[in-house]
Amino acid sequence: MLVLITDSVRFPDIPARLAAIARSLPAGSFEVQVREKHMDGGALLAYVRAVMASCDAPVWVNDRVDVALAAGAYGVHLPERGIPKADARTIAPTLKIGASVHQQGGGFGLDSMQLGPIWETPGKGPPLGPGILSFARGARLIAVGGIDTPARAAEAVAAGADGVAMIRAAWTMDLRPFDDAIATAHAAFSAR
Fold first, then answer.
1. CATH number for the domain harbouring residue 128
2. pTM
3. Which structural domain range is residue 75 located in?
4. What is the mean pLDDT of each run of 10 residues along the chain (192 residues)?
């Protein structure tokens, strides 16, 4: 699973790029996380709707439960210092709930968690390394941070991640090799 995280400031053509990605990758192989901290509610809602219209993939909205509900999104992704997951479930029982974590453990009560940074990436602190991805958890585990090659994506999955999230690579690279590497790593992991 690829989780493509938006950054419209650096990559303004994301809806068009998503339409092309949807044509090139197998159905069900990617999700989109709309992470646009600079947008106010109305602009963010319009953007989420544009993203949803551009591809047939689950769309998560970062931090804004209200916008996720109004847009009919698949889920909300809570930042580490966001509202508590229990409150998000109370407000939005129909949404999937994901969250960012920066240490091993946790994930219980979540549908998805992103752990990172796995490799060095600008502004995200020291990398945790792929070894941290092998632990018992209560949610789908997505590796994030510095996943800029298919080999790193495969290494993250081989270490225990269910998928990988990416920002820069998502909007600047061909994603087919990433998807192929993840599928191969999943098959090898399942054969153990």
1. 3.20.20.70
2. 0.94
3. 2-190
4. 97 95 95 98 98 97 98 96 93 96 77 95 89 84 96 95 95 95 87 64
